[in-house]
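#struct-pred
JK: can someone run the complex with uracil? inputs below
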Amino acid sequence: MVNQAKFKILEKECTACIKCSLSSTRQNVVFGRGNPNAKLLVIGEAPGQQEDDQGLAFVGRAGKMLDNIFLSVGIDTNKDCYISNIVKCRPPNNRKPFLQEVSECSPWLTEQITMIKPKIIVLAGSTAVQSYLEISEPISKLRGGWITKDSIKCMPIFHPSYLLRNPSKEKGKPKWLTWQDLKKVKRELNSL
Ligand code: URA
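RT: done, structure tokens with the ligand placed:
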């Protein structure tokens, strides 16, 4: 079980972070949302506008897509997961975070992982996959295969924003593939 008090302190410290220049353009730091006692951690790229406005991870259109696709395999994102991002503040105009921003922000994620102790990590999109696993292969090659890091099983999946742009559910298309990947995650969760 997460020490709730310590987790709250970490969140408070994170929300005061001014390590990089994203702190000067953000409305809110987006620490995460969901259940910090869950066995599953989902990591995305960075907050978008809705997330920046509300201070919560994945609450915009991509977040709704994420919620729905997880629900389709029986995973409730507020109950069965904790959701956070590689970078906790919104990059202007939703550009990809710079490498320096990623490296300055990474101690927050490391601390979150240390406290949550997830059994499974779902990495959504190439920024999450490449920065967390420190590899450069494209997401199209990596998705759907387990990669173990620090004894935690990690599953790369397409980013939900990509699924919004590719909405076909046809067999072999990105949405169908993601559904297969999440079925693997659900099976693994059930076996824990
Ligand atoms: N995209 C992300 O990667 N993270 C969010 O929190 C929202 C959109």
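RT: quick notes.
Residues 73 and 183 are 6 Å apart (CA to CA).
The first strand starts at residue 33 and ends at 34.
JK: thanks, will look after standup
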